[in-house]
Amino acid sequence: MHNLVAHLKTQLETCKAPFLLAVSGGRDSMALLHLAHAAQLEFVVAHLDHALRQDSSLDADFVRNECQKLGVPFFSETIPVSSIAEKRGWSLEEAARNVRYEFLSRSAKKNACQTILTAHTLEDNAETVLMQLLRGTAKATGIPPRNGRVFRPLLELSKQQLEHYLLENSFNWREDPSNTDSQFTRNWLRLEILPRLTKRFPNAAQRLARYAQLSRDEDSFLEQTSSLPDWTDLRFEHAAVQRRHIRKILEQHNIQTDFQHIEQLRLALENPITQRISLPKNQTGLVQNGSIIIHQFTVGADSHVRPAFAHGIMQGQDRHRGLSLRGMGFESALELAQRAFPNAILRSRENGDFIQLAVGRKKLSDILIDKKIPRELRDQIPVLSLGQRLVFIGLEPPLLDSSLPVQKDLEFEAMREALQLAKAAAARGEVPVGAVVLCGAEIIAKAANRSREMLDMTQHAELEALRLASQHLQTPYLSDCTLIVTLEPCLMCLGAALEARVGRIVFAARNPKNGALGGVLDASRAAWNHRFSVRRGVLEAEARALLSDFFAARREVV
User: Which of 316, 290, 269, 321 minimizes the C-alpha distance to 536?
Assistant: First the structure.
């Protein structure tokens, strides 16, 4: 008895009281109740009647009487779980779990309890690991000891230990007849599978729990080290990172993580053509250009009424080639158009829509084809219209009627300047890389590679451009500046940009041999004391062709 009480106290050292104890009346939860009382904890007991049996109210009466004997506050509710499962399309097990935790959270708040305690045991954890493995979930991490305010202090103890404690102290509990029904997966594992495993492998439950612990630790580590920035091209990530990122995307859309769906989406990344993967809940995964978009089909006759538009789907790609509102952003561009055309209607596309651009009148359908917008997303793009004439198209960057003031994509124009510097470097026999520093609308520094000329491999274009920019501004910090370079920076140059606190980095071609923003590794994911934004692929084809021609010519000479 003393050992179990001491174990409970040790487990709860970092938890805040008062506690809410989830007590069903069964063996494990009654052991938790009596251990908490023996440990002199401050707690309230919560009991949920699932109304799944005619005599289920007797469980509530039993727990209430035991709490009265101990002088412990008791709180109870009755919720018809079966009807909720039918209404929401859940399995009975899923409904019971969801309803139970909703009840516990609500009860903790009502009773001002800081921590919720449940009586999950070593065997419960082992059963969960088996269920996760057999169902093919993306990860098998078992039952976490702590999840938000919910804590499971008995997770290292066996049911046999708890039963021995109750019998030794003449404490009663109730047996739920439904726990012997093997049609429920967990009961089947508990009654038939785990005993067979334990017969051959006596420590099976402990080993499964240890596997879960290792999986949780690795999962936690990967969670910290594999977080991807928005601009990441998933095609160049490790398969493990791809799967983790895809799983997160699916979870954000409330799609149960299934290995088959994750793998379909991951393998689709290798295809240069847009792939459409059918997913649960009538949703589709669109895989294009190293990114994944989850799209749900909308049903309704009124195309003007849509709760959400999929704007921003072109972000990070340089398809517009000229006029851009990237500096304003989507919302600012829309506001500008609405102020200029107060009678315009915000809606989704219709047949015959067109927009007047500086290059002339153009059909919306042609624009969407040119931009390679997947068909499933075309109805989700917002437009502002005066009849069939559009004055705003919600792409990224957005398109506006030619009568509205627009500004050039300054980063695009600055990259053109960097490419000219790179071409000049190539003519001198240097690796063709050019860099400029943009501050506001002004290029304040420009440089090209001089490593061979100076016999110094630190003479990279980025480093010289940063030095010149600091001299121009008379400050070592370039927080309001953008470093624009024709080739993805190496680790040395990225380190210099971090030290200079550059606010943004824009690069053209990927650097698969020395790149520090995804080419070899993505150093931006580390917890540096300075954060910056990144834009990739601006004039990528031109920069890549320049580099290829340069090295091809050198090979011919050799």
Answer: 316
pLDDT at 70: 95
Residue 522 per-residue DSSP state: B
Query: pTM (2 decimals)?
Result: 0.64
Eight-class DSSP state of 233:
-
pLDDT, position 396: 65
Q: Which of 59-68, 249-258, 523-532 has the lowest mean pLDDT?
A: 249-258
Spatial separation of the C-alpha atoms in residues 127 and 130, rounded to whole Å: 5
Share of the chain above pLDDT 70, in %: 91
Q: Which amino acid is at 301?
A: A
Of 321, 411, 307, 426, give the one whose Cα is nearest residue 370: 321
Q: How far apart are CA 131 and CA 139, in angstroms?
A: 11
> Rg of the chain over CA atoms, in angstroms?
31
Q: Which amino acid is at 26?
A: G
Helix axes 204-225, 122-135, angle to 10 degrees: 60
| Exposure string for 434-453, b = 16+ CB within 10 A, e = fewer | bbbbbbeeebbbbbbbbbee
Beta pairing partners, 346: 384
Instruction: Judge contact between 356 and 309, C-beta under 8 A.
Output: no
Order of all β-strands in the sheet with 150-151? 74-78, 43-49, 19-22, 115-117, 150-151, 146-147
- 324 vs 249 pLDDT, higher one: 249
Amino acid 241 reads: V
d(Cα 157, Cα 121) in Å, to the nearest integer? 6
Burial class (CB in 10 A: 0-12, 13-18, 19+), 94: middle
Q: What is the 3-state secondary structure (H, E, C) of 359-389?
A: CEEEEHHHHHHHCCCCHHHHCCCCEEEECCE
With bands split at pLDDT 50, 70 and 90, how would you rate the model's confidence at 353? very high
DSSP codes, 114-160: SEEE----HHHHHHHHHHHHHHT-S------SEETTEE-TTTTS-HH
Whether 444 and 470 have beta carbons less than 8 Å apart is answered as: no
| Sequence-separated (6 or more) residues with CB below 8 Å from residue 203 | none
Determine the 3-state secondary structure of 314 from DSSP: coil
Q: How far is CA 429 from the centre of its chain?
A: 45
The tens digit of pLDDT for each residue in 47-74 reads: 999 888 888 889 999 999 999 999 999 9
d(CA 513, CA 419): 20
Q: Give the whole-angstrom CA distance, residue 33 versus residue 41.
A: 10
* Number of residues that this document lists for the chain: 558
> Which of 28-60 are b and which e, b meaning 16 or more Cβ less than 10 Å from the residue's Cβ?
bbbbbbbbbbbbebebbbbbbbbeeeeebeebb
pLDDT on residue 2 = 57
Q: How far apart are CA 185 and CA 176, in angstroms?
A: 16
- Which residue in 330, 298, 299, 301 sits closest to 314, CA to CA? 330
User: Is 472 buried (19+), middle (13-18) or exposed (0-12) by CB count in 10 A?
Assistant: middle
Residue 354 confidence (pLDDT) above 60: yes
Please tell me the distance from the alpha carbon of residue 414 to that of residue 409, in angstroms, as a whole number.
Answer: 9
